[in-house]
Amino acid sequence: MADDRKAALVRITGRVQGVCFRVWTRDEAERLGLRGWVRNERDGSVTALIAGPDSAVDTMLSRFWEGPPGALVSTVASEDASSVQPPAGFQITH
Fold first, then answer.
1. Given a cut of 90, is residue 51 above it in pLDDT?
2. Number of structural domains, the chain?
3. What pTM did the predictor assign?
4. Does the active-site annotation cover 40?
């Protein structure tokens, strides 16, 4: 976990379900070498835990605003999650 210098719990709202947002998030996170998870919420939002080097977390936070084709992101709200132990790799959860 030496590379996990930063962790964020992120809530993304807008048209983020039904557009492969979770798969896109996992793929982007893996490209950046991040650990964590992503899931759909009942209210139509998506929540993600991302952890890794500061620059990779910052890059992912910026990419959330773009999302996959078909997504229309309204908000990206993040909070510090340094106390949360991320899983190995990056997972789509339910």
1. yes
2. 1
3. 0.93
4. yes
